């Protein structure tokens, strides 16, 4: 496999938090939720993960499937899946959900988080990066969902928070937003 498939195919690099998470998370079965054209799935696949890459956007998945086919990658499985259905059908060692939840209808987010937790193996990890809306830093974009301060950490009460912050960051389009960023480990 090419050293950097993302660069080869003109994709953005893997999300910095996915790269950071790989310092803690050993390769295993991974789920890339809201994978788009597969930048994180390709990164994880090159690091030894067996990746199920899901998105509702068939065109983006088609691009990933094309790369997987051209490169002969057997460890990445692109699949059409509506995250808001909260109906995962397998368990994973690592579930990555970066800049995806803010596009889910707010009434479905609790169910999606519960489903992610239920389908994480004991000792497995969830990575979430999602826009926030707070009094100090109102979200300038009209997403269907944003976290309130403390909301994400509260949803993972009882899990080991390996990393957690609510810092201001920049999206790939240049917009400055406050993000809830969490890498949590499911306890035994």
Q: How are the SSEs ordered, and which strands pair?
A:
Layout: H1 5-8, H2 16-21, E1 29-33, H3 39-46, E2 50-55, H4 58-71, E3 76-80, E4 92-98, H5 109-118, E5 120-131, H6 151-155, E6 160-170, E7 176-185
Parallel strand pairs: 1-2, 1-4, 2-3, 4-5
Antiparallel strand pairs: 5-7, 6-7
Tell me about this structure.
The chain has helices spanning 5-8, 16-21, 39-46, 58-71, 109-118, 151-155; strands at residues 29-33, 50-55, 76-80, 92-98, 120-131, 160-170, 176-185. It has one domain: Vaccinia Virus protein VP39 (Rossmann fold, 3-Layer(aba) Sandwich). It is of the alpha/beta class and 188 residues long. 25% of the residues lie in helices and 30% in strands. The chain is globular and about 50 Å long. A seven-stranded mixed beta sheet has the order 3-2-1-4-5-7-6. The mean pLDDT is 94.
